[in-house]
Amino acid sequence: MHPIRLIPDSNFIFSKKQCPIFRKVRGYHLNFSSQEELDFPLAFSILTYQDAEQFERFLKSIYRSQNIYCVHVDKKSSSKFKAAIESITDCFDNVFIASKLEYVVYAGFSRLKADLNCIQDLIERSNDWKYFLNTASTEFPLRTNLELVQIIKLLNGSNLISVYELKKMIEFRYKFIYRENLNFFRVEKGKFLENNSPPHGIRLGKGSAYNIMERGFLENIFTNKKIVDFVEWLKKTFSPDELVKQQLIRTIIWKSSKYKCQGFYRHAICIYSVGDLAFLNKRKNLFANKFLISYDPISYQCMEERLNKRSLINQDQNISDKNYFLSYFKL
Q1: What are its GO cellular component terms (predicted)?
Q2: I want to staple 273 with a disulfide (CB 3.0 to 4.6 A). Which of 45, 211, 263, 329 is the partner?
Q3: Which of 221, 90, 119, 215 minimizes the C-alpha distance to 159?
Q4: Rounded (10°) CA dihedral 264, 290, 4, 145
Q5: In total, how many domains does the chain have?
């Protein structure tokens, strides 16, 4: 399938005076929030690097006025894309660009650092939010904001953590020293340079780059010496975001999965197409990763319509699969 041309990034560059028109045309005022949602604001980070149209449509899908959103724009993104994101974020009091941006390198420490930058900004900007979710503009929510709130409240102040034992096959990720090459934007292993063991006797586990974490826990990561030392050690490892962060209940189809992707694989992860929608519709996860509007705009539009209908049906109702999550959280 040939890529579809998206709305040019330049179309999203406009003055702040045009913000009321932008918000009205895009229907941000239609994103209804129940009292339960208003009483339980969430914080999000959104990593993005290209395609302003997809970023804006993803933001629209998760936007609620009581939540707060930090956007990390890859430093190597185009100037037009950066200007477009600035225009969009300037239209909201609760959406902002991270104060410190990184050149994000796949499987490098910069991927983790981008989230840490946003977490710090979110903590400093607002005392209201309860939980933090990190996202990317290439995914899409399978749950409404109300469902997210009701599911997260089941955690009762704990974090969503699933740790898997490290397998021998990925010891290379931390046994050797890795550095980010910003000339080629890739992670390179130093020849014959072995890494030290993790500080403070910390045991490593395998997780995911996505998570749900409680505010108090996050405030601790910038002051606790063990955590600070561990983050410093991670700078020299491969794909450190999967060593420090834990599994969030996301639908991600790996090339090794039993289910075969109907779209195509990038970095061994499925890029969804229309053929995957029936599969996604049965999932109980919170988000699905990944979508590219330029590859299959129909599948993305179908997901938007599904979410809108789900929002209308589920207003002020309790989630129907509460017992599934209670069992998953082992509560």
Answers
A1: membrane
A2: 263
A3: 215
A4: 150
A5: 1
Residues in the chain: 331
Residue type present at position 30:
L
CA distance 4 to 2: 6
Residue 47's DSSP bridge partners are: 72, 136
pLDDT for the residue 194: 60
Burial of 151 (0-12, 13-18, 19+ CB in 10 A): buried
145 belongs to a structural domain: yes
**Could you tell me the two tokens for 172?**
């290379």
Poorest-confidence range of 50-64, 69-83, 147-161, 164-178? 164-178
- Can 305 be counted among the known catalytic residues? no
Q: Beta strands of 103-156 (E only): which ranges? A: 131-136, 139-141
Q: How many CB atoms lie within 10 A of CB 236?
A: 17
Let me know if residue 77 belongs to a domain.
yes
Catalytic residue among 53, 56, 214, 242: 242
Identify whether 319 is part of a domain: no
Residue 117 has pLDDT above 80, yes or no: yes
> What is the pTM (predicted TM-score) of this model?
0.83
What is the CATH number for 116? 3.90.550
Find the mean pLDDT for residues 257-284.
93
One-letter amino acid of 315: Q
CA dist 280 → 24, 109, 110, 111, 143 (Å): 30, 31, 30, 26, 11
| Structural domain boundaries enclosing 206 | 9-250
Determine the Cα–Cα distance for residues 127 and 162; give it in Å rounded to an integer: 27
